[in-house]
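Researcher: Re-running this chain for the archive, since the previous output was lost when a drive failed. Same request as before.
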Amino acid sequence: MIVKLAFGRGVVSADVRGLRCHPLEPTAPRGSDDVAGLVAAALDRPLAGPPLGELLRGRRRVVLLVPDATRKAELPTVLPLLLARLEAAGVRRDRITVLVACGTHPPAPAEELDALLGPLPAGVVVRQHDARDEATLAVAGTLPTGLTVRLHRAVLEAEVVIAVSALAHHYFAGFTGGPKLIFPGVAGYDEIQRNHARVLDLSHTPPRRHPGCEPGRVAGNPVAEEIRAAAALRPPDLLLAMVRGRDGRPAWMAAGPLDAVAEAGAAQVRAWYEVTGGPFTRLVVSAGGHPHDHTLIQAHKALDAACRFASEGADVLFAAACEGGAGSPAMLPFLEDPRPAAILARLAERYVQYGHTTLRLVEKTSRFRVRALTRLPGELVQRLGMEPVTDAQGVLDGWREAAPGDVVGLMAGVAVYPAR
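Model: Regenerated C-alpha cells:
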C-alpha cells in the first residue's frame, strides 16, 4: 500500500507494504457536496432560539465574527450566504463588519486575507483583531476567577454578532471554536496569557501541567471553564458551527445560541474523532499539510494527538513542513533552552503560551523517539530532541527489516484522539 502524507502544499508518498498498518482515522463521513444547503438548513432551523431573520429585525449594526486561516471554516462559501440574508433583512453593507478573530496569532497579509474570506461586496468593512492593540479593546466584565476580560470594541458595540466557527478537539482547552471565537479570539493579550497559564498547576511541587487540561474535556478543565465564562460576557447572538468530515469538508452544521450549538457540536466531534487503537511501538503521523503544518506551533498538535496512541519509548515518524518556522518570536527564548525543567521554571515566573507549546513538544521528544521530516533547521530539530530525516521511506524500510510483524499506527490525515 502506498500512503500519501500531506506535507506543506504537497504530499510525501511512502510504501508501507510489508508493514501491518492500523489506520488512525475518524469515523466521520465525507463532507457534503452541498455546503450552501447545510448553511441554509442550519439557519432556517436553529437548534434553539429564533432564526436569523427574527434576530435581525430592527437591528442594523452587525459583526460577522470569523476565525483566521488556522481554523478554516469555508468562509468563501459561507460569507456570501450570510451577507445575502443580511441584505434581505435590510442591513446596509456599510453597517456590516467582518472581524477576524486572530487571538494572539499575527494578522494575515492582504493576499492571504483575501483567500481566507473570498470576494466581499463593496462597503463591507474587514478588520483583523490584534490582541496587543489597546485602543481597540474595552472591558466586558470581570469573572469570579478575578480575570478582567477586555474584548474588541466592535463586538461590544454591535447590535448583532454572528459567529462562524469550525469545532474540533484542542489539545489543552478541550475544544477549539465555539466560545474560543470570543475568548481568546477577540480578547486582550494579557488576559489570554492569564487564562492559558491555568494549564500549569503551580500548587504542585514541582509545577506540573494541570491534569484536567486535556482534549475533549471541559468540566474540570480550568482553561476551558474560564473561556466559557469569558465568552458569556458577550456571546454571539447566533453561532453557525460546523464539524468537518474525513476529507476536511463540512459534514455537520448547526446554528443557534452559543451554548446549545457548542454542546451539540462537541458531541459530534467526540463521536467522529475519538477512536480506539494502540498502544503502538511505531507510529507515522502527518501534521495535515498547509496551513496545519505551516509552523511548529500548529504542527505539534498532530504529534500530540498521535503520541496519545504510543507506548513508552515508541518510534514516531513525524512529517511536518513548518515552512513558517517556529511560528512566534515569543517562542524563541524557550527554543534556546528547551529542557523541561528550565521551561517550567520560566513559565512559573511568567507564563507565555508558546513556552507551554515548547514544553509539550519536548515532553514528547523525551519519552519517544521522534524522527522529523521537516524543513525546520536541522540544528533546531536536534535541540528539541528530534532526529531530522530526509527520507521517510528509509525509516519505514528500517522498521520493516527490524520488526516485520509489528503493527504500525498510521495517522496520515486528520488528527484523532483516544476514545474514553
